[in-house]
Amino acid sequence: MEIGLNTDFWREYQTVEEMEESLRMIAAAGFTHIHWCYEWDSDYIYAESEMRQIREWMDKYHLREKSLHATHGRGAKKGLHARKDYLSPIENNRLAGVDLIKNRVELVHALGGSEIVLHMYLPYEDFQNVPGAKEDFYTRACKSLDDLMPFCLEKGVRICLENLFEAPAEMQIEQFGMLFDRYPAEFLGLCLDTGHANLVWGNAFITELAERFGDRLYSIHMHDNKGWGKEPGCGDAHMVPGDGNIDWKSLMAVLRKTAYQAPWVLELSKPEGEDPESYLHRAYKAAEWMVSL
User: Fold this and answer.
1) What residues pair up with 117 in beta bridges, in sequence order?
2) Virtual CA dihedral for 216, 220, 225, 229, nearest 10 degrees?
3) What 3 state SS string does 220-266 have?
4) Separation of alpha carbons 283 and 266, rounded Å
5) Long-range contacts for 130-138 (Cβ within 8 Å, ≥24 apart)?
6) Is the four-CA dihedral 85, 86, 89, 90 of positive or negative sign?
7) What's the pLDDT tens digit per position in 154-179?
């Protein structure tokens, strides 16, 4: 069975030894693919030598690349601007953000994958309160996507925009609809994040995204949570499927009708105190159960 897992399931490693060990553990648990997730929100630039190194590790442990979590750049303090941000209103920093994403396109291409996942945070309060804010935002976003499209098509890499929980569902549906109408499927698709969707409208939003944009669903982050609350498992908990309140049977029935193709990819976060090898074994068994639905 083809199942993928995010490389940072335990933590955001920084050393060479720890990164290789994470791949060894993923393979030993039975996973066939990885979702390279290190530096998913940083402005780190990978050297070509590092790309070769990661590919050598993958070959060593017989792992394949399904997807890679690209980065919008390191977050900035409120009212200030990040140095690399493809949505920046400052042109030089916007261009630097485009170059940062191109670096991730080169990385996933070197690892044998064909898609990157990208966050596009919507400043929805500005949309509601500042005249012209929505038009300005999408002008910048489309300018960066226009810059990226020739490079991505040349490399054979698709950008998949991820649904988030920081903006209302209606605005995200509008976002995906507008951008998918503007850009071809070879370049732009959807990454369905089940846990994020569950925090917005619950199972209804997961189903809405899968049914409305199923022909653009090329990437997936499968994880569970218990919605919003204060008890363990609430919030963006990235739990093993079945540990939260997502209706996986209904979800898998909907996903079967979309463009998505295996491997199924889990994006998990190991709880404190749980043995990593036992946790990976449990996660793989849960994935087998989920796919059997």
Assistant:
1) 69, 160
2) -50
3) EEECECCCCCCCCCCCCCCECCCCCCCCHHHHHHHHCCCCCCCCEEE
4) 8
5) 136/89, 137/87, 138/178
6) positive
7) 999 999 999 999 999 999 999 999 99
